[in-house]
């Protein structure tokens, strides 16, 4: 406010100081300027008064607003005190009511706890059961019931308890049923979908025509096993079951009482071809030697059997024949009747020596195979263990699958070596015995001939 009083004085002083110079130019202009200054001063005074009045009025309103705010604060504080009092009263009431509820429930609370546990266990069992493909909605019911029983503010109704009992009873009943499900969606091994009739055998297996199916609990769907049991023994029973008419009587069926556990282990078991392939190159060599030994043993058995029969036939005949070993030896005797005993003995020994290679041909090789086969199996075992240790060095022992290849090779080659060696040893014994039998007959006949010749020489 002092600023506005000083401003006209400063302006006037300025005009007075510079006035003489302006007056020299134009006296009328200076008078007009003084009038304008006087008018501006009056206008400023009126504006100042108006601003002062407005400030005084606003100050009164601000004081009223402040008073209203204080009154509102006091009212809210009184309301807060009332709400706190009500909250404390409600807390006491809730505690009292909860105590009354616990007293009234008594043993029912234990019952509801058992119901909650049974509902949770039944849900896990039903989700993994083959019957879930027909009744998928019960999992939602059991989940809601278990969640409801877990809340202390909610209790199960009579209808829910009865339905829980009904679901348990239905599951037990379905375990004893063989049921056909028409046009059900089945995922094949190549990922395609097909709709076909399937048979549910209790809670143990679900089969289609010639195939066993597996159940996926996450999607509640049926899918074909990536590999069916070998041999057709079990898959043939699934076809018989699917094609059997209702009420046709008893049908033989390969049942898995573990609901797929044994079946999964069965289909994962390697077949003969896979076992052989696990043996690698060493296994192939062992099998080749085994086949060669068996063929050679069979040829020797047939040849020696025929030769033995011819020799026995020659024993019953007095005429030597060139078609058998004994006949050829006797022919040497007939050709050297006049020779002395020592010469005849040498001639007969030479004849037996000529017949021996034919009788013992291939027997030594069979024996070699019987000895080499287990050694090759040992070689495969050592090679497989080396591969196993290399896998352990690279990948550690955390994943057994990385070691399975080497261990399989180690075990399979050992089995193959023993499988070849055992029958080869038996065949060698049989073949060698046949050969020795024929050789023994030749030696006996030769000894008899020499003895007769010696007696004739001595008597002469």
The best one-word shape is elongated
SSE string, helices as H and strands as E: HHHHHEEEEEHHHHHHHH
Tell me the count of domains: 3
Strand order of the largest sheet: 1-2-3-4-5
Report the sheet with the most strands, covering strand number, pairing sense and barrel closure: 5 strands, mixed, barrel
Distance between the termini: 185 Å
What is the average per-residue confidence, as pLDDT, rounded to a whole number? 81
Count of helical segments?
Answer: 13
| Proportion of beta-strand residues | 5-15%
Describe the protein.
By secondary structure, the protein is α+β, with helices and mostly antiparallel strands. The chain folds into 3 domains: 2-87; 176-267, no CATH class; 278-459, no CATH class. 73% of the residues lie in helices and 7% in strands. The protein contains 13 helices and 5 strands. The chain has helices at residues 2-25, 27-105, 108-127, 138-150, 158-174, 233-243, 261-267, 272-278, 280-315, 325-335, 341-360, 363-395, 401-459; strands spanning 178-187, 193-201, 205-208, 211-216, 221-224. A 5-stranded mixed beta barrel has the order 1-2-3-4-5. Strand 3 (205-208) and strand 4 (211-216) form a beta hairpin. Helix 9 packs antiparallel against helix 12, helix 10 packs parallel to helix 13 (401-459) and helix 11 runs antiparallel to helix 13 (401-459). The N and C termini lie far apart (185 Å).
């Amino acid at each position: 406010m002092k600023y506005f009083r000083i401003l006209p004085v400063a302006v006037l002083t300025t005009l007075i100081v510079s006035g003489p110079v302006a007056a020299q130019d134009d006296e009328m202009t200076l008078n007009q300027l003084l009038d304008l200054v006087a008018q501006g001063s009056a206008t400023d005074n009126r504006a100042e008064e108006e601003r002062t009045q407005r400030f005084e009025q606003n100050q009164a309103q601000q004081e009223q607003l402040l008073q209203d705010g204080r009154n509102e604060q006091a009212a809210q504080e009184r309301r807060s005190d009332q709400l706190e009092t009500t909250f404390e009263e409600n807390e006491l009431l809730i505690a009292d009511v909860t105590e009354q509820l616990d007293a009234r429930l008594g043993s029912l609370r234990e019952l509801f706890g058992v119901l909650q546990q049974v509902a949770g266990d039944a849900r896990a069992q039903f989700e993994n059961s083959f019957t879930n493909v027909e009744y998928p909605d019960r999992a939602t019911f059991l989940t809601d019931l278990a969640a409801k029983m877990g809340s202390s503010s909610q209790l199960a109704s009579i209808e829910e308890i009865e339905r829980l009992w009904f679901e348990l009873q239905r599951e037990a009943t379905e375990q004893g049923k063989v049921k056909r499900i028409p046009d059900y969606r089945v995922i094949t091994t190549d990922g395609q979908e097909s709709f076909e009739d399937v048979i549910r055998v209790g809670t143990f297996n679900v089969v289609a025509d010639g195939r066993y199916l597996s159940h996926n609990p996450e999607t509640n769907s049926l899918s074909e096993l990536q590999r069916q049991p070998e041999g057709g023994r079990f898959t043939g029973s699934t076809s018989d079951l699917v094609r059997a008419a209702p009420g046709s009587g008893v049908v033989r069926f390969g049942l898995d009482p573990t609901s797929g556990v044994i079946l999964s282990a069965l289909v994962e078991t390697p077949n003969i071809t896979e076992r052989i392939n696990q043996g690698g190159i060493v296994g192939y060599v062992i099998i080749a030697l085994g086949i060669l030994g068996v063929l050679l043993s069979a040829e020797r058995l047939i040849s020696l059997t025929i030769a033995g029969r011819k020799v026995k036939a020659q024993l019953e005949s007095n005429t030597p024949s060139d078609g058998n070993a004994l006949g050829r030896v006797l022919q040497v005797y007939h050709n050297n009747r006049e020779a002395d005993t020592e010469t005849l003995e040498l001639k007969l020994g030479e004849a037996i020596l000529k017949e021996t290679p034919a009788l013992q041909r291939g027997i030594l090789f069979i024996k070699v195979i019987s000895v080499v086969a287990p050694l090759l199996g040992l070689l495969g075992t050592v090679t497989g263990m080396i591969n196993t240790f290399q896998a352990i060095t690279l990948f550690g022992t955390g994943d057994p699958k990385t070691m399975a290849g080497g261990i399989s090779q180690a075990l399979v080659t050992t089995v193959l070596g023993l499988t070849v060696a055992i029958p080869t040893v038996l065949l060698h014994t049989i073949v060698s015995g046949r050969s020795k039998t024929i050789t023994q007959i030749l030696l006996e006949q030769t000894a008899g001939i020499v003895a007769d010749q010696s007696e004739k020489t001595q008597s002469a």
